[in-house]
User: What shape does this take?
Amino acid sequence: AQSVTQLGSHVSVSEGALVLLRCNYSSSVPPYLFWYVQYPNQGLQLLLKYTTGATLVKGINGFEAEFKKSETSFHLTKPSAHMSDAAEYFCAVSYGGATNKLIFGTGTLLAVQP
Amino acid sequence: DAGVTQSPTHLIKTRGQQVTLRCSPKSGHDTVSWYQQALGQGPQFIFQYYEEEERQRGNFPDRFSGHQFPNYSSELNVNALLLGDSALYLCASSLVGCSLFNPYNEQFFGPGTRLTVL
Assistant: This one.
């Protein structure tokens, strides 16, 4: 079955430090890949997506992610963490088709320490 | 341009009751998907509605049903509520299109309805 694995349910970084959130998918067919952010008591906001083309994609708020087919990974990075980045981050995949339903990972809660 | 809206924001029910959640899609969108997000989990796909019909369904029992209206808005109904149905219910809308160059139709999420079953 298709699945998404996010390593580390909790990640803590210092303000100004590198943020690295890991995501791997299990599929022989490369999916469309997404990162969403969820702030407390809110819905999901799309950070960035990979559908086709360049494998390094840039998103909002200084985040970027690189699709590596050989590693079936789509890790999210940000060079310098800001306090406002504290939130839960979800990696998701879709295989297009009629419904384009999203399959989500279990999420990574990012804490940013001053 | 209004985004995806959901109502109510919060809801408290007791076991065995029935609940209806509502969703209005983003302007111009014709497809609505529903997701359940239990505490500490990622969202799980419930089903999707297009042209007033259920197009695909996730691994949810028949207690979960839905409807889409001619104006593309949608309802999610849950019967015989269980404690385990407590969750954030997210609605996402998208536009079904046929394009060789953009086969993926991005979904836009609403703020969700927090359902608590006591």
